[in-house]
Write a structure and sequence with these properties.
Helix content is about 85%, strand content about 0%. The chain has 2 helices and no strands. It has helices spanning about 5-10, 15-60. The protein starts with a helix and ends with a helix. The relative contact order is 0.07.
Length: about 60
């Protein structure tokens, strides 16, 4: 008889489910890291754009 719900899901039992969960967690953490990196890039680009826009506005006066 299966000892816990994971045994019902996968034929490899607890070890196979644990490996899947670890892989899933690793992927989620990688995506969070990528999202944070992209957010930092976006903020840097936005700051540069605002600085350039302020210079153009000052020159137009």
């Amino acid at each position: 008889m299966p000892s816990w719900p994971g045994d019902y899901i996968l034929t490899g039992g607890e070890e196979k489910l644990a490996e899947f969960c670890q892989g899933f967690t690793d992927r989620q953490l990688a995506l969070v890291g990528m999202e944070n990196s992209m957010a930092a890039q976006y903020k840097g680009n936005l700051a540069a754009f605002r600085k350039q826009a302020a210079k153009r506005a000052a020159a137009a006066r």
